[in-house]
Design a protein that fits this description.
About 65% of the residues lie in helices and about 0% in strands. It has about 350 residues and is an all-alpha fold.
Length: about 350
């Protein structure tokens, strides 16, 4: 194992880790898209995808093949380099956010002490891919859709930031692994419930913060009922109107990857991450650490898919907001509420000393 402590060994290990996470993530996204469509169909009393493969499980791979073999058409008036670069930037940033996600004990690609700040930076840069795509199309409707999307993402990033500050105050760290470890034990140690029985009164603050984070995540990823950049009756397909074939697939991949990332982030910040809802002393007797870490991986996956299921149910049931309602919710409801929550949690930590 000393070989992996050398520069060459470290590089091989890190690249292998990145490839493993990326391949598993892409396969997961394929079945997440399938699950999203099946849930939507179930709510509407339809069957959904059921032809390609058993129960339609291979539908996403058939869609991939269709996108890859379709002709790539670039509008004559488009700025071609920027037009093609936009989806690449979007998908790179969307997948790059997973570099700091602790999917299991010891399984994060990069265990950095400022993981939360890294995610802020990556999510903020994601706006540029959308702006570039809308502007490079040289068409009014994509440009309007890009402006809507940028305004929407920036608006809800503010409230997401203040919500995450409450979690940082409870955990005392910007490291996502340490935030997860601070929630070990029984489920009442999860930040959603105040971060421990001594902090149980904070459930009145942290539970609404979890709900605000979930709803803001929907708006951040342009998911219904906040899919205003792609409102069919108004802007057809938002910033992606002029896109088709593989570039459109990359935009769709980036959006779905961000949805899964927000679901995983909800699990890490509020639902204990890889920690089970009960103490796990039985894992101390497992002979190999990597086998014990599989337990955490399964728990993390279950929580992430649960949050995504709630996400899909909201998409299926809740009607679309008007744009003024969307902005009013972000700036006049979520922002002041999260600001007050930051002040209350900070005051609690200072005057009680409970927490990190």
């Amino acid at each position: 194992m000393e070989f992996f402590n050398t520069p060459v060994g470290w590089t091989i290990w890190t690249v292998s880790h990145i490839l493993l996470i990326t391949v598993v993530l892409l396969l997961t996204i394929a079945f997440v898209i399938y699950g999203d469509r099946k849930i939507f169909a179930g709510v509407q009393a339809r069957k959904g995808p059921n032809v390609v493969g058993p129960f339609g499980l291979l539908q996403s791979f058939a869609d991939l093949g269709k996108f890859l073999i379709k002709e790539l058409v670039i509008p004559a008036g488009a700025d071609k380099p920027v037009f093609l670069l936009a989806p690449l930037i979007s998908v790179t940033l969307a997948l790059g956010g997973w570099a700091v996600m602790p999917v299991a004990p010891g399984w994060s690609v990069s265990n950095i002490n400022v993981g939360v700040l890294y995610l802020f930076a990556v999510s903020s840069l994601g706006v540029y891919g959308i702006i570039m795509g809308g502007w490079a199309s040289n068409s009014k409707y994509p440009f309007l859709g890009a402006l809507r999307s940028a305004a929407q993402m920036v608006s809800y990033e503010v409230s997401i930031g203040f919500v995450i500050i409450t979690v940082i105050l409870l955990s005392g760290s910007l490291n996502l692994n340490q935030i997860t470890q601070a929630q070990a034990g029984w489920f009442w140690n999860w930040n959603m419930f105040g971060g421990g029985w001594k902090n149980l009164p904070l459930i009145l603050i942290m539970f609404p913060m979890g709900v605000i984070f979930f709803i803001s995540g929907l708006a951040e990823t342009n998911r219904p009922p906040f899919d205003l950049p792609e409102a069919e009756s108004e802007l057809v397909a938002g910033y992606a109107v002029e896109y088709g074939s593989t570039p459109y697939m990359l935009f769709y991949l980036a959006e779905t990857s961000n949805i899964v990332l927000m679901s995983g982030l909800m699990a890490v910040l509020f639902l204990g991450g890889w920690n089970a809802p009960w103490p796990t002393p039985y894992l101390d007797h497992v002979p190999f650490a990597w086998i014990a870490s599989l337990h955490g991986l399964v728990i993390f996956a279950i929580k992430t898919f649960f949050v995504f299921f709630m996400n899909a149910m909201v998409r299926s049931i809740v009607p679309r907001y008007r744009y003024d309602q969307l902005m009013r919710l972000g700036w006049k409801v979520f922002l002041p509420t999260s600001l007050v929550a930051v002040a209350v949690v900070a005051g609690w930590r200072v005057y009680t000393g409970f927490g990190a």
